[in-house]
Amino acid sequence: MEVTERIRVVIAKPGLDGHDRGVKIVARALRDAGMEVVYMGLHQTPEQIVHGAIQEDAQAIGLSILSGAHMTLFARVLELLREQDAADIKVFGGGIIPEEDIPELDRLGVAKVFTPGATTQEIVEWVRSAIPARV
User: Fold this and answer.
1) Residue 69: how many CB atoms within 10 A of its CB?
2) DSSP state of 115
3) Where in the sequence is the signal peptide annotated (predicted)?
4) pLDDT, tens digit, for every residue of 1-24?
5) What percent of the chain has pLDDT over 90?
6) 3 DSSP 8-state letter
7) N or C: which end of the chain has fewer CB within 10 A?
């Protein structure tokens, strides 16, 4: 039996945002590219997301935020990861995020922010290059 390297990603919609079409497309693109994807669904708290990522032994968390609460939600997820000694889990995301907020998100530790218009191929390629696969 051949052992293959896989990237495991948790994808979630934190907060009150109820629009999930885009995040489901991203989850499917990552899965179609051979990654293991755990889609946690809508209305997740940062605590639920971090707990799920740790339980799933994920290497990355992808957040989709359209509600305008991106600064608070990304910051809280990163804070919880540090508290749980899981800061090695990379956090990336996208949604309706103003360009002027991206430098602060970078400073907080968000690995990558995808803005509207990013293609699924761009996202797949970034995940492949930024997240090391493991056996």
Assistant:
1) 15
2) P
3) none
4) 444 568 999 999 998 878 889 999
5) 86
6) -
7) N
CATH class of 8-130: alpha beta
**What is the identity of the amino acid at 43?**
H
For the chain, the maximum distance between any two Cα atoms, rounded to a whole number of angstroms, is: 49
Report domain extents, the chain. Answer: 8-130
CA distances from 120 to 79, 98, 135 (A): 28, 20, 24
The phi and psi torsions of 110 (rounded to 5 degrees) equal -70, 125
Torsion of CA 124, 57, 69, 80, to 10 degrees: -140
CA distance 73 to 121: 25
Structure tokens at 6: 């896989």
Residues 92-104: what's their mean pLDDT?
A: 96
